[in-house]
Amino acid sequence: MKGNCLVAQSGGPSSAINASLCGVYQEMVKSADVGTVYGGINGIQGIMEEKLLELPPILNQGEHIRILAQTPASSLGSCRFKLKSPEEKPEEYARIFEVFDKYQIRYFIYIGGNDSMDTVYRLNEYAKSTGRPMQIMGVPKTIDNDLVGTDHTPGFGSCAKYIATTVQEAAQDNMVYDMDSVFVVEAMGRDAGWIALSTALARDREGNPQCDLIYTPETPFSTEKFLADLSAIREKKRFQVVVVSEGVKDANGVYLSDTGETDAFGHKMLRGAGAVVAEMIRKNLGIKVRDSELSILQRCAVHCSSATDLLESEELGKQAARGALEGVSGRMSSITRLSDEPYRIEYGFVDVCDVANAVKTVPDDYFNEARNHASEKGLRYLRPLITGTKDRIEENGLPVFLNLAAIYHRSNSF
Fold first, then answer.
1. Quick one: which of 17, 343, 366, 404 has the fewest CB in 10 Å?
2. Long-range contact pairs involving 201-208 (C-beta distance under 8 Å, separation at least 24)
3. pLDDT tens-place string over residues 371-399
4. What is the reported pLDDT for 179?
5. Residue 269: pLDDT above 60?
6. Does 414 have pLDDT greater than 60?
7. CA distance 288 to 118
8. CA 125 to CA 172: how far, in whole Å?
């Protein structure tokens, strides 16, 4: 089916999302069925505003595709836009498909997370119901690793590597002075504790964990149990590192870090779980404590990215593009793990209707018995995802990045 391709990005950025974009681009430009590959600026919201950029042929030359692949965050820009049903907002669908028709889009590929896969599902159903000859595909993306239908998600491995490295470094800093102290790290993770759990990978040369306690949304947080856990650790060592997910809740389901605000999707905005836990320590134990909310730093730390993550992310983009060219639609490219040791995977597809708006939490057996650290099974799952480093293209000692959204805005400025 001949026509043009449109690829866009949505949701929160990561270190690997542009590697997926590169994968889509490289497969599409090889096909005789594809005329032009466009990038949608600022996701589906920008598409409705007809903000399309013809991806420059320069990407096929020299180092440019490598520079795009190593660029963190969403090079095309992103959005957090909730597409409602055609019955609720028929004008949105009319506008989106008006743009598709104008630019002769036959292949639309959306890179994103849970809500983005909902958009893929809705657009694919609408295209089918109106007889539109289109292939609409999704590519997974989220540092939270909470998408169902795939063993893990692009962006998570690099985030895990960054936060585990940060904990290792913080542990070294914590041991400098001869005094009792605790360092509390707040990790992202509203509904699932994958990022926090990955700090269990931080180990010294003897294999001892550098992170002492981990608390995630999968287990209700008890102040009493936490203080008892910490006191038990303090009997063995003077310096402790505690990691807590932003989405930790108490036994009543109340977030420790609830700000009382909501985002565009109606999700509660969370901030400060680490500070709450740090205050518990100060108030009840009276020892020195520091806390750090890594916030967006953990999303796009390409200097600490995982080679495995970047390679798989690119391949998932290629997989979605190949599927679209072969007539597949309404699917998300996915990973199935065949074994942990040696690490082996295969690529496939999953229906986006099974992915949209669902959440994959950490399995019970990935936690230790006390549910305050990772089990050996959890570690076996995590270890392969952070392996390897990739050489970076640098200028004057710093990495070089390519922001396609900035190119679009410069060319359309007044």
1. 343
2. 201/160, 201/164, 201/379, 201/382, 201/383, 201/386, 202/164, 202/165, 202/167, 202/168, 202/171, 203/168, 204/171
3. 999 999 999 999 999 999 989 999 999 99
4. 85
5. no
6. no
7. 46
8. 53
Peptide bond into 154 cis (omega under 30): no
**Of the residues 115, 144, 212, 291, which is catalytic?**
144
Tell me how far apart the alpha carbons of residues 411 and 175 are, in angstroms, rounded to a whole number.
Answer: 52
Closest listed residue to residue 132, CA positions, set 284, 329, 279, 316: 329
Phi and psi torsions of 213, nearest 5°: -140, 140
Cβ atoms of residues 16 and 154 within 8 Å: yes
How many CA atoms lie within 13 Å of 308's alpha carbon, on the beta-carbon side? 19
Kindly tell me the burial class for residue 237, based on how many C-beta atoms sit within 10 Å of its own C-beta (0-12, 13-18, 19 or more). exposed
Nearest to residue 197, comparing CAs of 28, 382, 51?
382
With CA atoms as reference, report the closest residue to 68 among 27, 7, 17, 29.
17
Which of 189, 145, 196, 195 is closest to 313 using CA atoms? 145
Q: What is the mean pLDDT of the chain?
A: 93
Q: How confident is the model at residue 268 (pLDDT cuts 50, 70, 90)?
A: low
Position 412 scores a pLDDT of: 82
Place of tokens 């995630």: 216
Q: Is residue 144 annotated as a catalytic residue, yes or no?
A: yes
